[in-house]
Amino acid sequence: METTTLSNGVTIPMLGFGTYQLDAKDVPTALKTAFDAGYRHLDCAHIYGNEAAVGEAIKASGIARKDLFITSKVWNSDQGYDSTLAAFDRTLSDLQLDYLDLYLIHWPNEDNFDLSLDTWRALETLYKQKKVRAIGVSNFSEKQLQAVFDMATVKPMVNQIERHPYKVQAELGKFDTDNGIVNEGYSPIGHGHLILQDSVITKLADKYGKTPAQIVLRWHLDTGYVVFPKSAQPAHVKENFDVDGFHLTQEEIAAIDGLDQDKHLNYD
User: Fold this and answer.
1) 81-85, 115-119, 154-158, 235-239 — which is least confidently predicted?
2) How far apart are CA 32 and CA 232, in angstroms?
3) Given the residues 39, 48, 166, 225, the one annotated as active site
4) Is residue 232 exposed (0-12), middle (13-18) or buried (19+ Cβ within 10 Å)?
5) pLDDT above 90 for 109
6) In 35-50, which positions are buried (b, 16+ CB within 10 angstroms) versus exposed (e)?
7) Does domain 3-188+224-231 have CATH number 3.40.50.300?
8) Alpha-carbon gap, residue 225 to 97, rounded angstroms
9) Domain boundaries of the chain, sorted by first residue
10) Is 48 a catalytic residue?
């Protein structure tokens, strides 16, 4: 499993398993398949409505806690200092864990960004109490990150953003990297969008004897992004993990970068 290191020295697996839109009833089978395939990093969130089921699946797996990397996120309606602390406790209880590896602000508050700054203070408290090993944000712009930098005593270690070949996020990704922030990309293969039918991707799949999805995931990893594809289909779960043993050339990475359309497939 490839890893990268956060600014505080914590190691994070670069390929994880996403739990977004995973129905609670499908969680036991999906996570057993994921664990059997080798995944040890789970990306969760309270708003996904399945953290209790994920907690049961983690418990049933028998995998040592130290061998897992578990991320969750505080949702918009829970933002604010005290409400964030309460939301964290609820997530920890649902997941049946003593600590999280990474806790993120899910979205910047659009109506009152000061509320997001209060939320960040709560994340710093959790970090200093050692209830979470690392803290970060999701969907934050350069301007919003700078506002956090200006008040933070602990800088964000991660920014999780929409990222796929049609939304490369070159400028934001570079800003994050330049400021010691690890990039994570959600919707990495674009919901099975036309991306996987693009001739640039399919030709590389033919060259390497891989699927188009595996090529796109390799592109993310080779450009330093942590990603977590999600599927309830066992074959796809295993396929998405099988991206070792090859790397794209700089020319091939540039060709995929060139597919950028600045195209959001999720909420902007």
Assistant:
1) 235-239
2) 11
3) 48
4) middle
5) yes
6) beeebbbbbbbbbbeb
7) no
8) 26
9) 3-188+224-231
10) yes
